[in-house]
């Protein structure tokens, strides 16, 4: 599961607004936990959060929060659940103001993808601090610099594959390589 995620998804540039919002929500749930924990529950999250449809999630109320708190298919952290609902509302507010979420996110990283040549993965960066601040200014919560950095890695804004990894050169935003583990 982790190998397939690495080989087929992590670091591949994502430019779809709804998918970027889903990825940000999942990264928020990952805070303090392993990515494996979130990945194993991704289908449960998608079911519980209405396919990460921001319009549907933004309409969630206290009854939905309690439903989610009782759902063993997700990580049951009230603060993260409430933040995800609020973040759907922030996403919609951006859209209503004419600001596309993907355009916003990628405009924060004008030289994307930023290639990390060091082989050392950071927890945050000046860029993730700026992204976090910009998200918070738009009403997002649970999007600190570490979460923002993990999201930027996952979405391909920052290429943190090891330079020796077959994915490093491939994650330039133009190609999607075949996994060396496929077939």
**Percent of sequence in beta strands:** under 5%
Characterize the biggest β-sheet: 2 strands, parallel
Could you say which structural class the secondary elements and strand pairing correspond to? mainly alpha
Outline the low-pLDDT stretches: 173-183
Terminal Cα separation, in Å?
Answer: 15 Å
DSSP summary: helix tally: 11
The total strand number stands at 2
Strand order of the largest sheet: 1-2
Helix content: 40-55%
The general outline is globular
Order of helices and strands: HHHHHHHHEHHEH
Gyration radius (Cα, Å) is 16 Å
Nearest-integer average pLDDT: 87
Short description:
This protein has helices at 2-8, 17-30, 35-40, 42-48, 54-58, 62-69, 78-96, 101-107, 126-137, 145-154, 166-170; strands at 114-115, 158-159. The protein has 183 residues and is an all-alpha fold. α2 (17-30) runs antiparallel to α7 (78-96) and α2 crosses α10.
């Amino acid at each position: 599961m982790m190998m397939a995620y690495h080989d087929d998804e992590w670091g591949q540039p994502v430019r779809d607004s709804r998918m970027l919002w889903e990825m940000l929500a999942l990264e928020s749930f990952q805070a303090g936990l392993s990515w494996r924990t979130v990945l194993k529950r991704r289908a449960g999250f998608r079911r519980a959060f209405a396919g990460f449809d921001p319009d549907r999630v933004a309409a969630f109320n206290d009854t939905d929060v309690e439903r989610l708190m009782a759902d063993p298919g997700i990580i049951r952290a009230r603060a993260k659940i409430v933040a995800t609902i609020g973040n759907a509302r922030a996403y919609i507010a951006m859209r209503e103001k004419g600001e596309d979420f993907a355009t916003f996110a990628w405009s924060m990283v004008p030289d994307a993808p930023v290639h990390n040549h060091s082989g050392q993965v950071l927890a945050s960066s000046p860029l993730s601090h700026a992204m976090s601040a910009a998200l918070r200014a738009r009403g997002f919560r649970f999007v600190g610099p570490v979460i923002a950095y993990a999201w930027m890695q996952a979405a391909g804004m920052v290429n943190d594959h090891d330079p020796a990894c077959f994915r490093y050169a491939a994650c330039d935003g133009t190609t999607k390589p075949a996994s060396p583990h496929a077939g």
